[in-house]
Amino acid sequence: MGYDVHPFVEGRPLILGGITIPHHQGLAGHSDADCLAHAICDALLGAVSEGDLGRHFPDTDPQYKDVESLLLLKKVNERVEQKGFRITNIDATIVAQAPRLVPFLPHMEDRLATTMGVEKERVNVKATTTEGLGFTGRGEGIAAYAVALVEGR
Ligand SMILES: [Zn+2]
To answer: pTM of the prediction?
Structure first.
C-alpha cells in the first residue's frame, strides 16, 4: 500500500495520474508532485519488498527536480518486473476537496495503465472529499492512497 500528500501552492500546474487538471493552484514538490503516481509507486515498491520511492529517487537528487512522475512509475514497474513479478491490479483513491476530479479519472487510468504496460481494466482510480474536514477538506493539499496486487511470473 502507498500513501502520499502534497501541499497546494500558487504558480504550479496540478498534475495527477499524469494528467494536467485545470485549477488555480498546483502541488508543491521536488518532482512534478503527482501525488497519485507517488502513492502507486510506493504501493508497488512495497509489494515487492523494495522500500519506498524516496529510497530509489531521493528528493535531494537534482536529477529528479521537476521530473515527470510517470517516468518514475515506469522505472518502478521495471523494478517490479526485474524482481519476477507483474501487476495484477492497482486501486487508488485521491482525497481532494477541489477541484472536482471525477471527469478526469478515466484519462488518469489510461495513462497510468499505459505507463505500467497493463490493461486499463487492471487500474482503478477513485476520488473523494473529506466533507470539508482536515487538511484536504480545508483545501491545503491533496492526499492519495493506493493498493497494488502483484503476482509472481
Ligand atoms: Zn509525493
So the answer is: 0.97
